[in-house]
Amino acid sequence: MELFLFVIFSASVPFIIYLYFVIKQRSCVQEAAVTVDRNALMHGQMDEAEDVTSHCSILVVEDQMPIRILLKEALDELPLEVREAETGEQALNSMRACPSKIVLMDVSLPDMNGLDVLHTVRTMRPDTEVIMMSAYSDADKVNEAKAAGAIGFFSKPFDLEELRAYISSRL
Q1: Which residue from 17, 114, 123, 146 has the least number of CB within 10 angstroms?
Q2: Which residues cross the membrane (predicted)?
Q3: φ, ψ for residue 11 (rounded to 5)?
């Protein structure tokens, strides 16, 4: 892991220090910024500062570009990096290169069954939370997804506000 730390003192906002860092791990580069109250630093009260490890990402796996774009735009409002994959293979490659905290995935993908991808992701990264979605959902499919390790299932079309709220609750 490489850590580059840049400290910038802000003259316009008193008592705030901006810390910018880049963590390079495997082939994944994540960037994050955190503000720390200078008083907290000076008085040893670091628990009052934001946690620099709070940066996370979500991988949206959807083969239909209009839906993928809509989901990305809706999720961009959350405090996480939104990454995209069009196929199951792309999703697995993405998870190998730079694991995401959350995966939002369609059941029907052009190259693989989304439930097979779910199983592989859960095997590779048991800590990753996977949310499935489908336009063709019945009770059996929902139960199968949850039995395979999905933490949630959204039937298309779904309310984007509900999805955002659900994902926010998982952060």
Answers
A1: 123
A2: 6-23
A3: -80, -25
In angstroms, how far is CA 152 from the centroid of its own chain? 15
Alpha helix ranges (H) inside the chain: 38-42, 65-75, 88-97, 114-124, 139-147, 160-170
pTM above 0.90, yes or no: no
Q: Coil, strand, or helix at residue 170?
A: helix
Number of Cβ within 10 Å of residue 102's Cβ equals 21
Sign for the CA dihedral angle at 121, 123, 127, 131 comes to positive
Q: Where are the alpha helices (DSSP H) in 9-87?
A: 38-42, 65-75
- 99 to each of 56, 104, 131, 171, how far by Cα in Å? 9, 13, 15, 15
Rounded-to-integer distance, Cα 95 and Cα 111, Å: 17
Find, among 167, 92, 88, the residue nearest to 123 by Cα: 92
Q: How far apart are CA 45 and CA 59, in angstroms?
A: 35
Q: Which amino acid, 153?
A: F
Peptide bond into 14 cis (omega under 30): no
Asked if residue 72 lies in contact with residue 60, where contact means CB atoms within 8 angstroms, the answer is yes
DSSP tag of 52:
T
What is the C-alpha to C-alpha distance for residues 68 and 84, in angstroms, rounded to an integer? 8
- Please answer whether residues 10 and 33 qualify as being in contact, where contact means their C-beta atoms are separated by less than 8 angstroms: no
